[in-house]
Design a protein that fits this description.
The complex is a heterotrimer of chains A (about 220), B (about 250) and C (about 220). By secondary structure, chain A is mainly α. Chain A has one domain (about 5-25, about 35-205). Chain A contains 6 helices and no strands. Chain A is about 80% helix and about 0% strand. Chain A has helices spanning about 5-25, 35-65, 70-100, 110-130, 135-165, 175-220. With about 250 residues, chain B is α/β, with parallel strands linked by helices. Chain B is built from 8 helices and 10 strands. In chain B, the strands form 2 sheets. A 6-stranded mixed β-sheet of chain B has the order 6-7-8-3-9-10, sandwiched between helices. In chain B, strands 2-1-4-5 form a 4-stranded antiparallel β-sheet, with helices on one face. In chain B, about 30% of the residues lie in helices and about 25% in strands. In chain B, helix 5 (about 145-155) packs parallel to helix 6 (about 175-185). In chain B, strand 9 and strand 10 (about 220-225) form a beta hairpin. Chain C starts with a helix and ends with a helix. Chain C has helices at about 1-20, 25-40, 45-70, 75-80, 80-85, 95-125, 130-155, 160-170, 175-185, 195-220. Chain C is globular, with a radius of gyration of 18 Å. With about 220 residues, chain C is mainly alpha-helical. Chain C has one domain. Classes of the chains: A mainly alpha (about 220), B alpha/beta (about 250), C mainly alpha (about 220).
């Protein structure tokens, strides 16, 4: 998708989401206004997961095709994923403070998110410790693949350790109609935003790569 | 500057066409077309960075080429790597041997890895061949460079490869040691084994080789199937080919 | 089968080579004991309270000494470029992975076989039960499965000693969680029944992280 279309689309969706979250949807009876952060917290979590899935698939594509484009997609998506994971931690923290009186709690979801954050941080640490471009892409793909495969097991193990039984990671109990719609709009908005960031970032990486090729050619 | 034409009926041990190897932006080999007949010995010359080691490693199936076709004894290397490797022996810059293990243990390990039949006998043979039988239980860290090189050769010959690849075998060896190495190489399976080696030493190489190739910045600058050049002729050819580098 | 004879050759070579110098094994053992001792000072608890944190201490010791041991797995292959020598052998690259993993498994089990009794002695807690041993073995397999491929990766980066723990520890959190929880349950008297969910997680982890690295390992060592 062309960035311009995405820009317009995401702007519209974000505005719609903001409206729905802050104006449209009724205040939660139990938690009060702070509950509104739920829509962002959940959306951001789904997008982080989507981003790492894209990194996983792009990593496999790179190993199969060896086209640097796939590595650009993988690392751009991982960057966005890392940022969104940080947002999970931050929104979770903001939510936790009025709810439980603490900035951090080792509950299943936040803990899993923290481990996820560490896994993808290590993705970038590995990249930073390798200078050869081809090897960097290859190793990153391996880390991205192993990391993503690990995510469900991490979530499962942490969930078990807290509650002794698995439960749906996001939804507890049903959602009222208006809340569900708001949530879906919110998720759609963030997805559009993710695609926008991805497109822009990949174009940027492509330009960087072209610049480097030109520099190399001039050197010879 | 042209190669003598190969008659189509001569079987080829190694054949490459359009062999390219790039490391990211840097291209080490820019399209190598090579035909090495069975039983011949090919010497590959070239300045440092010309791509000699890269070529040897790709032929040894240790490094993957970026593109191009490689046929080893008629088999495509890409699809038959495991089978082809039983026919290849490699002596590289490093010895590929484990310092903590003895000569015997190193050879035993590789004999198992190559599936050598009647291991004990073959290891004994090879140790005799490289004149290291007396040191067979000594650990490799105690060996001099020359002895390690002989052991590397022993390792390469264990499985009786039909193609032997050597990357600058003379590095770090004195004349006597070098002579010993070539005697060993030429003694076993003489005439039936194909040998490809890279070298900086024209004199020594001319004495043992049939064909010659000069690599320069990833391309073949000169090749001759049966080299009729004299030592001076070869040196001059080399200067010509590599003159472009010195600007 | 050809594959397994090569794997055995590689594992055997690693074991013989290391047992000869005993460099890694001794430092890892000493390190593990040190971790136990330091934790004793760090948590100065009464014996009945110790029971709660004992599995945790044990697994911290195993995790960190495991990292030490795994870090060294591919270093001998770097000297004299032996890894290339292995790559030239007529066997799939996966055999190198499995062979190396088995070698590391042997050493970790060796370390655990020493540390568990030492632990039982120092903390006066009955860790030498069959359930604990099974849990430990399953967890170690998971460790080694992930650690071997990351060790091969780390040895090819700058700051190789740093990269392995950073990569490895987040990924194996399920192993550590399961091992600690299962061990705790055993120490308070739970039989096999109480362990099923943890054993399943460990088993699932082991299977997945033997298969995925097996498939992906050739991409790490290729040139």
């Amino acid at each position: 998708m062309r960035p311009r279309i995405l820009l317009v689309l995401s702007t519209l969706l974000i505005l719609a989401a903001l409206f729905m979250v802050f104006v449209y949807v009724p205040t939660d009876a139990e938690q009060g206004n702070i509950q509104r952060i739920f829509y962002f917290h959940v959306s951001v979590a789904w997008i982080a997961f989507l981003a790492f899935f894209v990194t996983f698939v792009a990593g496999i594509a790179y190993l199969a095709k060896r086209n640097p484009f796939w590595d650009m997609v993988a690392s751009a998506s991982a960057e966005i994923g890392l940022v969104f994971t940080t947002l999970i931690l931050i929104t979770g923290s903001i939510w936790a403070r009025p709810m439980w009186g603490v900035w951090w709690t080792w509950d299943a979801r936040l803990t899993s998110s923290l481990v996820l954050w560490l896994i993808y941080l290590s993705y970038f640490i590995v990249r930073s410790y390798i200078t050869d471009e081809e090897r960097k892409a290859r190793f990153a793909a391996v880390v991205g693949i192993i990391g993503f495969v690990d995510v469900p097991i991490v979530a499962l193990a942490i969930q078990f350790s807290r509650t002794q039984h698995p439960s749906a990671l996001i939804f507890e109990g049903g959602l009222a109609g208006s809340m569900l719609v708001t949530l879906l709009v919110s998720i759609a908005a963030f997805t559009a935003l993710y695609l926008l960031f991805l497109a822009v970032r990949v174009h940027l990486k492509e330009d960087e790569s072209e610049l480097n090729s030109l520099k190399e050619a001039m050197r010879e | 500057m042209n190669s003598a034409a190969t008659s189509p009926s001569v079987p080829l041990a190694v054949e490459t066409s359009g062999l390219v190897k790039s490391f990211g932006h840097y291209t080490a080999l820019r399209g190598i077309d090579l035909k090495v007949p069975v039983g011949s010995t090919l010497a590959v010359f070239g300045p440092n960075g010309a791509g000699k080691t890269t070529l040897i490693k790709i032929l040894a199936s240790i490094m993957r080429p970026t593109s191009g076709k490689i046929l080893i004894e008629g088999l495509e290397l890409k699809d038959n790597a495991e089978r082809v490797r039983t026919r290849l022996g490699l002596v590289a810059h490093q010895s590929y041997l484990y310092g903590n293990l003895s000569a015997w243990e190193n050879l035993d390990f590789y004999a198992r890895m190559y599936g050598v039949e009647d291991r004990r006998r073959r290891i004994g043979e090879v140790l005799e061949l490289v004149n290291m039988t007396s040191r067979k239980h000594d650990r490799l860290v105690t060996f001099s460079r020359g002895m390690q090189q002989r052991m590397a050769l022993a390792r390469a010959l264990l499985h009786k490869p039909s193609i032997l690849l050597l990357d600058e075998p003379e590095t770090g060896l004195d004349q006597q040691a070098l002579g010993a190495i070539w005697d060993i190489i030429k003694s076993e399976e003489a005439g039936r084994r194909t040998i490809i080696f890279t070298s900086h030493s024209f004199e020594r190489a001319l004495a043992v080789c049939d064909g010659v190739v000069i690599l320069e910045r990833g391309r073949i600058a000169f090749k001759a199937q049966s080299c009729t050049l004299s030592l001076d002729g070869l040196k001059q050819k080399y200067q010509e080919c590599t003159a472009a580098v010195k600007q | 089968m050809k594959f397994w004879s090569r794997v055995a050759a590689i594992a055997w070579k690693d074991v013989v080579s290391e047992l000869r110098t005993r460099e890694i094994i001794f430092s890892v053992l000493v390190f593990a004991v040190l971790v136990l001792v330091i934790f004793n000072f760090a948590f100065d608890l009464a014996p009945d309270q110790m029971l709660q944190i004992v599995p945790g201490i044990l697994w911290v010791a195993f995790a960190f000494s495991g990292v030490l041991a795994l870090n060294r797995a591919f270093i001998p292959e770097k000297e004299e470029n032996c890894l290339e020598g292995l790559m030239g052998c007529p066997v799939g690259r996966e055999a190198i992975y499995v062979g190396k993993a088995l070698g590391s498994l042997f050493f970790m089990v060796l370390v655990e076989a020493v540390i568990l009794p030492v632990f039982a002695l120092l903390f006066n807690i009955a860790v030498l039960q069959l359930e604990v041993i099974v849990v430990t073995l399953l967890a170690t397999i998971g460790f080694v499965a992930v650690g071997t491929i990351f060790s091969a990766l780390a040895v090819n980066t700058r700051a190789r000693e740093m990269v392995l723990p950073i990569l490895f520890l987040p990924i194996i959190t399920p192993v550590i969680i399961s091992a600690v929880k299962a061990s705790s349950l055993v120490l308070v008297g739970s039989g096999w029944g109480g362990l099923t969910s943890w054993l399943s997680i460990l088993a699932a982890f082991d299977v997945i992280f033997l298969v995925v690295p097996f498939l992906v390992f050739p991409y790490v060592i290729e040139e």
